[in-house]
Each structure stands twice: as structure tokens, then as C-alpha cells.
Design a protein that fits this description.
The chain has about 500 residues and is α/β, with parallel strands linked by helices. It is built from 15 helices and 21 strands. Strands 14-15-16-13-12-18-19 form a 7-stranded mixed beta sheet, sandwiched between helices. Helix 2 crosses helix 6. The N and C termini lie far apart (about 65 Å). Bound molecules: NADP nicotinamide-adenine-dinucleotide phosphate.
Length: about 500
């Protein structure tokens, strides 16, 4: 696959959809690239310029899902018996190809998803990190050996794969999130059917293409494009699928939970967030403002960990407000391949409308609009929303409670540290929270009391690394964690094994 020769520092001119030399993409089922059985297709568009068609993808349906699950089921019988270190070798090769193609993949991601190039490189780097991390687990996958309570009896536990797993992913990390699921699933010995988000199919194509090049056997990874209704629903209903690993909105996650209940599928859910940065009166304010800008407006606020609430001590409220307004005014919006652009478009027109509606809701609720608040048509023909700051927000307002998923954040003034923690926790979600303070007692109290799966001190709400658990409390998740060694718990189950070499009947709990 030819890497783009474009200079990453040069402004990028939007070109017709010949960027990758390939415009027609196919499902990947049983090691074959195939169209949807119905022949239907859909287009993937550049959110910075929707007239730029990135590619045409199959709009699959239940028949395609059935074929993919059948291929995965057949492949499972061989893959589960492939030693985990050998599975790891394939992933190591994939990691190497990802390194070689990083720049090309990042540029394609900016074009398809909209995040600025530096962030797209970070997304691809996360795939590389996860791929090597999971590959290394091929030589660990630790179980336990414990002493038996009886003589001449051996007791241990091992991880067993689950079988065929269904992976449903969102568009905001078009490659990183599929990799968070695929790589641990594969190293544990499962075979996979991936249904990527319809807004970002290209990067899942690239990931599967790279796994194929690395030598993944036919049928071990299957890729089926199409809508939640036509592909997601049949995948969740399929009797041969043992687990659905889902990342997306809380509303769809609830539906996933319900749909999987009748067949007792395992369900791992990573869902929405409404994350807060707490700024205390002793904080380094310039550092905190840097954190808010990155946390709130990075990826145009379209991260599950985006900082959409800034809970600020009243003693520093005015200073933080003024610094933020000044710095927001300096953020350049536009096409993310241009090196001076800091904020890209939002993903699609529906998202643009939803964000603008929330801005109107904030104004109607009595919040003070300090910056932004509108669509930005100067930035380009796509879906651009100005970075938006509300002040004097009360923690009960909808803009402080509901996930907006756009470049909008809300200053919530509080009287003291105790109130800051209460406001931070007064929310249905529990994904990521940050506190800026120099007071070690406050920092550790916050780390103890915040109801949040990720907590940061003197760093923004975004910045997770692949080797620690990733996920949220309360309505953000259902108790599982992606990434880290905990991702192995999602994609395997425990077998406890006893070997009695006493040559006589020994009865646990009775004979010792
Ligand atoms: P979404 O609308 O919930 O979609 C997520 C995935 O579910 C997509 O592949 C979507 O397919 C599919 N889907 C939709 N309806 C379905 C159904 N009835 N059955 C099965 N699958 C269905 O979320 P999104 O807009 O892509 O992503 C944004 C959300 O993801 C935000 O809420 C964000 O907080 C959350 N998120 C959470 C994390 C985390 O780790 N906690 C990380 C990233 C994002 P289509 O694309 O075809 O509709």
C-alpha cells in the first residue's frame, strides 16, 4: 500500500476521492473481500467538506452477519488451539506494519473523521501501543497456581477464550477503539466480527487489511459494514456470538444490554461521559487553562473523556474565565491537515444540529455565553462549531448534566473544595475527572472521593495510556474495563483446574 508523499507540514488541499487510490471498499468475511449480499452501499464523507467522498462501503445486512459469524465459528476451532505466543507473533507483525504506515493512516483519519493531524497521529499511536501490548500478553496470559487444601492435589486456573465475539465501535477513535477490542480478543484466542461506526469505515478497513498482511488466518477477523439496525442488531441476536463488546452512547448501550439479555451473552459496555476539571484556589492557573483547552476542545470535544464541565473555585473564577476567553479566541478552526488548525469539524450534520441545540438550551437556562456559540462557516464548508464557553452554569442545568459531544464547556463556580467534589459527582456518568491543586491533601482526597473510573491530578481529563484499565463508573459502563490487563477479563473466562495424583478419593472440605 503506497504511503502518501504529502508533506505533513504543508497545507492540505482537499482532493477528489482518489486519495488512497481506492474508492470501493468491501466487507471482509472468511478471508475474502466481498460486497454486501444485497449489493447496497453507503458513502463515507469528509466532515470538513462533505462534497469530498472518501469511499463507497457495503451496506450489509443480516445475511452478511450470518456469513461472518459462520466464518468466525469455523476459524475458532483452529485459532483457539493456536498457542498464544504464536498469535502474539502475528500481532507483533501488525504493529510493525502500523508503525510503517502511521503517517498515511493519520492523514486518512483526519480526512475521514476530522480530528486534527497531531491527534490523528496519536490515535494511530494508540493502536500501535495496544497492538504491542496485547502481543506481549501472548507470553503472559497469567493464571494462578495455588496450594490445594489436600495432599497430592494440584490446583490452578487458566484463561479460556469465549468463542465468536461481536465488536461494535464508535467513530470518535476510528482505529484506536477497534484495536482496543480486536487485539485483546485475538490474543485470548477468540475470533471476531467487527461492526465499525458508519461515519468512519475506512480506518477499520485499514486495520483489518493490516492484520491480513500480518498473517491473520482466514475467518479469525471479519469486518461487516452497515447500520446499527441492519448489522448491529443481528449480531447481538446471533446465537453463536458469545460476547458483545460495545463502545458508544449510553442510549445505544442500554439497547445492547437489553438485546443481549435473552441469549445470556456477555456484554461489555463503554458509554457516555460528562467529565469535569476542578480548579482549586491554589492551582497553577495557566497550567489549568492549558488543560481545559486541551480537555474541552481537543477532538472538537468529541471524546468520551472531554472536559465539558469546569468546576472552579470562586476565588479564581474571574481569572480563569478571562484567561479562557482570551485563549479560546486564539484557537484556529479548520481542516485538520492544515498545521496551524487546532480545532477540526464535528462528525456530521446531525451532530452539528444537536450541539447548536444544546447551545440554545444553555442560553435559555440562563447560562452566560462568553465565547463561540455558533456554526463557523468561515472555517470551511463542513460541520464546524465555534469553541464555546458558558459561564455561571449551575450544576443542575442540562448543559451541565447531559453529554453534548461537541466543543462546548461550562464554567461552574463553587465555594470550596467540598462543594467542588459534590458537583463533580452530581452526575449520572463517571468516566474521567481532573483536579488542579498544589495541596496534596486535597489531591488525595479527590482521588479517593471522585466517582470516576479515571482521575487525574494537574493534568486534563484526556490522556489515558493503554496499559491501565479504561472505563467508567455509574452509567458510563457496566463494570468492565477496556485496555490494561482488565481487557483480558472481558475477552476470556476462567477455568479452575484440579489434578489429583493421590490415587485415592479425596474429598475437599471434608477430608482435611
Ligand atoms: P453510538 O451512536 O452509540 O454508536 C456506536 C456504535 O453502535 C456504532 O457502530 C453504531 O452504528 C452502533 N449502533 C447504533 N445503533 C445500534 C443498535 N441498535 N444496535 C447495535 N449497534 C448500534 O455512538 P457514537 O455516536 O458512534 O459515539 C459517540 C458516543 O460514544 C459518545 O456517547 C461517547 O461518549 C461514547 N464513547 C465512549 C467511550 C468510552 O470508552 N466510554 C469511548 C468513545 C466514545 P452506526 O454508526 O451505524 O449508527
Amino acid at each position: 500500500m503506497a504511503a502518501t508523499q504529502a508533506n505533513p507540514q504543508a497545507p492540505f488541499e482537499i482532493k477528489p476521492s482518489t486519495f488512497s487510490g481506492q474508492t470501493q471498499f468491501l466487507n471482509y468475511i472468511g478471508g475474502q473481500w466481498v460486497p454486501a449480499k444485497s449489493g447496497k452501499t453507503f458513502q463515507s464523507l469528509n466532515p470538513a467538506d462533505p462534497s469530498d467522498v472518501i469511499g463507497v462501503f457495503p451496506a450489509a445486512g443480516p445475511d452478511d452477519v450470518n456469513a461472518a459469524v459462520a466464518a468466525a465459528k469455523t476459524a475458532y476451532e483452529t485459532w483457539r488451539l493456536t498457542p498464544a505466543p504464536v498469535r502474539g507473533e502475528i500481532l507483533f507483525r501488525a504493529g510493525q506494519i502500523l508503525i510503517e504506515r502511521k503517517e498515511e493512516l493519520a492523514r486518512e483519519m483526519t480526512r475521514e473523521m476530522g480530528k486534527v493531524l497531531a491527534e490523528a497521529r496519536g490515535d494511530v499511536q494508540e493502536v500501535i501501543d495496544m497492538t504491542f501490548y496485547a502481543a506481549g500478553e501472548g507470553r503472559r496470559l497469567f493464571g494462578q497456581t495455588v496450594p490445594s487444601e489436600l495432599q497430592n492435589k494440584f490446583a490452578m486456573s487458566v484463561r479460556a477464550p469465549l468463542g465468536v465475539v461481536g465488536l461494535i465501535t464508535p467513530w470518535n477513535f476510528p482505529m484506536a477503539i477497534p484495536s482496543w477490542k480486536l487485539m485483546p480478543a485475538l490474543i485470548c484466542g477468540n475470533t471476531c466480527v467487527l461492526k465499525p461506526a458508519s461515519d468512519t469505515p475506512l480506518l477499520s478497513h485499514r486495520l483489518v487489511e493490516i492484520l491480513e498482511e500480518a498473517g491473520i488466518p482466514k475467518g479469525v477477523v471479519n469486518l461487516v459494514y452497515g447500520s446499527g439496525r441492519e448489522v448491529g442488531e443481528p449480531l447481538m441476536a446471533h446465537k453463536d456470538v458469545t460476547l458483545i463488546s460495545f463502545t458508544g452512547s449510553t442510549d445505544v448501550g442500554r439497547r445492547v444490554n437489553e438485546a443481549c439479555a435473552p441469549t445470556f451473552k456477555r456484554v461489555s459496555l463503554e458509554m457516555g461521559g460528562k467529565n469535569a476539571i476542578l480548579i482549586m484556589d491554589d492551582a497553577n492557573l495557566d497550567l489549568a487553562v492549558d488543560g481545559v483547552l486541551w480537555g474541552a476542545f481537543g477532538t472538537s470535544g468529541q471524546r468520551c473523556t472531554a472536559a465539558s464541565r469546569v468546576i472552579v473555585h470562586k476565588a479564581v473564577h474571574a481569572q480563569v474565565r478571562d484567561k479562557l476567553v482570551k485563549r479560546i479566541g486564539e484557537l484556529k478552526l479548520g481542516y485538520g491537515l492544515n498545521p496551524d488548525v487546532k480545532v477540526g469539524p464535528v462528525i456530521n450534520e446531525a451532530s452539528l444540529k444537536k450541539i447548536l441545540e444544546y447551545i440554545e438550551i444553555g442560553k435559555a437556562e440562563g447560562a452566560t455565553l462568553l465565547a463561540g456559540g455558533q456554526r463557523d462557516t468561515q472555517a470551511g464548508p463542513g460541520w464546524f462549531v465555534q469553541p464555546t464557553l458558558f459561564d455561571n452554569v449551575k450544576s443542575t442545568m442540562r448543559v451541565a448534566q447531559e453529554e453534548i459531544f461537541g466543543p462546548v464547556t461550562a464554567l461552574i463556580p463553587v465555594n470550596d473544595f467540598k462543594e467542588a467534589i459534590e458537583v463533580a459527582n452530581n452526575i449520572q456518568f463517571g468516566l474521567s475527572t481532573a483536579i488542579y491543586t498544589k495541596n496534596v491533601n486535597q489531591a488525595f482526597t479527590a482521588l479517593r472521593d471522585l466517582e470516576s473510573g479515571l482521575c487525574y491530578v494537574n493534568a486534563p481529563t484526556i490522556g489515558a495510556e493503554v496499559h491501565l484499565p479504561f472505563g467508567g463508573m455509574k452509567d458510563t459502563g457496566n463494570g468492565h474495563r477496556d485496555a490494561g490487563s482488565t481487557s483480558l477479563d472481558v475477552f476470556s473466562e476462567w477455568k479452575s483446574l484440579y489434578v489429583d495424583y493421590s490415587d485415592k478419593l479425596q474429598r475437599a472440605q471434608i477430608d482435611h
